[in-house]
Structure formats: structure tokens, C-alpha cells
Amino acid sequence: MTPRLVIVVGARPNFVKVAPVWHAVQRIGGVELELLHTGQHYDEALSDRFLSQLGLPEPDVFLGAGSGTHAEQTAAVLVGVERRLLERPAEAILVAGDVNSTVAAALAAVKLGVRVAHLEAGLRSGDWSMPEEVNRAVCDRISDLLLCPTEGARENLVREGVPDVRIAVVGNTMIDSLRRLLPAALAASPREALGLDAGGYVLVTLHRPSLVDAPERLGATLGVLGEIAATMPVVLPLHPRTRARLAQAGADVPAGVMLLEPLGYGDFIALEAEARLVITDSGGVQEETSALGVPCLTYRTTTERPITIERGTNTLVGLDPDRLRDMALAELGRQVASAAPPQIPLWDGEAGRRTARVLLSTLQPSPVRNLGDGPLAHEEIGSE
Questions:
Q1: What's the pTM?
Q2: Least C-beta-crowded within 10 Å: which of 111, 207, 225, 350?
Q3: Cβ atoms of 140 and 122 closer than 8 Å
Q4: How many other CB atoms are found less than 10 A from the CB of residue 382?
Q5: Which residue ranges form the domains of the chain, and what is each CATH number?
Q6: In Å, how far are 50, 98, 114, 121, 264 from 93, measured between CA atoms?
Q7: Residue 370 confidence (pLDDT)
């Protein structure tokens, strides 16, 4: 019988991460693929549009989990994934990232004896106040196969006692999607449609509850963006959560700050690539800007992606608005250097292919034991 692999998506970053794996598994063949969309992000701009742009098919299953508390959202996905796996048993599921859908789908599968592979395993911020940190750690603990984007992520897992045999360093599949779709995205030139010059604007994304759910902190941050906008236009695509909090607070948007609706993936990466500076509280944006060579200020106190600081273009700011303003203005005052983007190991556009080859080995009998006695080095999985 043809083995079945269920790939779970739920939030925008999941789509970007799994698309290269989906396409690579399809090319190899021999597997029945199912795309299960939990509906954690159900806004068209954060879901359907991404699926289309990334070449993913319409989901086979849509759970419609929607929003709610962490418990409500996690429970809805847990029940829905369990029901689907009982209706249509599978040999394995692939979950990605660190959202509620990720840990809920993994829990449902492991309790049914279905093998779990976690894409983007091993990331750690050390900040247990972040729900994502809890999700990462729980998912890694119960997964059969841990697919890491960096050697540092593998080292985190080893320190936590995860056997080497369950770990594979495959690289960053998000960068695969970025490299594949960026040329067409730039050709569409959303920057020109907004009347912006290349290298002549600051792109901002803000969505984390620790920031946007605190009215005083959000208001202070808007004020700083207004100060930055006096030097260079600021472009702020609004996450639905951020828009709702701004409306609740009745906040005034400073002059020079351009508010946009949520952007499709292509439009966003094109604006990101041509920005002079990016300010974000997102994890994936830290990675994309490092791959693009665009300066990034991360408006958080911790990051689970330290390689973007060590070898990329990212700087951790903290949550002090004054520090954000000072660092942003200092960066804008520097002369732009024309240097090639930093080269981060295995962020080479081939991570999806490496991931697919390792992942398909889990569909064989006794998958983890058959992976060998030591860690899966990228040399073993990176060539045909």
C-alpha cells in the first residue's frame, strides 16, 4: 500500500516552510500526500493567497479552528486532527514551526501512534513567557524526527537529551520559498505602486500580544515610528490582531506612517528586499532579512534565531521605544554598503529537497532506528 503523509499548516509561516517540502516529496513520489489546514489563520490574506502564491493545492481538509484562547484553539485542532487521522489513518504527519496548530497536531498524532516529524525543530529563545517557546519544546519532545534549520538548533536538542538518531540538520525551507519567488515578486514592483523608492523606506511588522495588547506600549511604539517617519517613510502592513488593537485603543497614526492591509507573500518579500531597514517582532522576518542582506531591528527581548545575529543582519533591540528610535535613526544615518548577503550554512534553497529525502525515510519500517547510529549530517542527505 502507498504510505500516507499528512502535512499540517495553520498559520502564514507554516505555508512558507512546508511548500518546498511538499513540492520535493511530490517530485520523488511514492507517497500519498494530504494537506490539512487547521484554519488557525483564516483571513484570506493570511491563508488562501499564500497557498496560491506558494503553489500549494487547496487543502484536502480544513478544520476551521479560527481564533480564541490558547486552550480553545489548541483543543479545536487537537480534536479535528484526531478525528481526521481516525477517519484516514496515516503513517506520518509533518508539522512546522511553533504555533498552536503545530503542537496540537503533534499531540493528536503521537497519541494515535502516528509518527511525527517537526520541521524547524530545536529553536529556543529561553523565554518561557512566550507561548511559542512552550509549543516548540513540547513538540520537539514528542516528535520522532526533528528537522533542524541550523547546527545550533541541533545542539539545543542534544543538550536537552534528544538522541542524535532522531535529529537531522536540513537547513531553512523558508529561504527556499524566498529564493524561488523573489524574482517574480520584485518584477511586480509593489514598491512602485506605493510610490516608494528602493532603499527609501522602513518596513515594519508588529503583531505579538506582548506588544500590541499593551495599549501604552503600542502607543509609545507608534510615536517612535512617527519620529522615524520624519526621516524616511515607514510602511506598516497591519496584522489583523494589530489592526483590532489600534481600533480598540483609538490610536492616532502619525504622519508619514503608511498603513497597509495584510500583504500577500510576494508583495511582502518584495517590499522587504528593497527596504532600507526592517523593524519586526516576527521570527521569520529575522531570517528573511538576513538572507536578503537587509538590516533588521527585532523589537523583542529575546530571539530563538540567534544565527541571524551571529551571522546575519539582525540586531535585538529589546522593548524600549527610545532605544528602538535611537538604533533606527543611527542605522538610517549610515551610508548604505553594497555587500553580498551573508552566507548561512544550508540556507541555500535546497532545504526542501534535503527535508523530503529524510522525511520519506520515516515512512519505512522502524524509521528512526533505520536512520543510523549518529546524527544525520547534511553531507549524507544533501546529494542524490
A1: 0.91
A2: 111
A3: yes
A4: 17
A5: 4-171+347-381 (3.40.50.2000), 188-333 (3.40.50.2000)
A6: 21, 15, 7, 14, 27
A7: 35
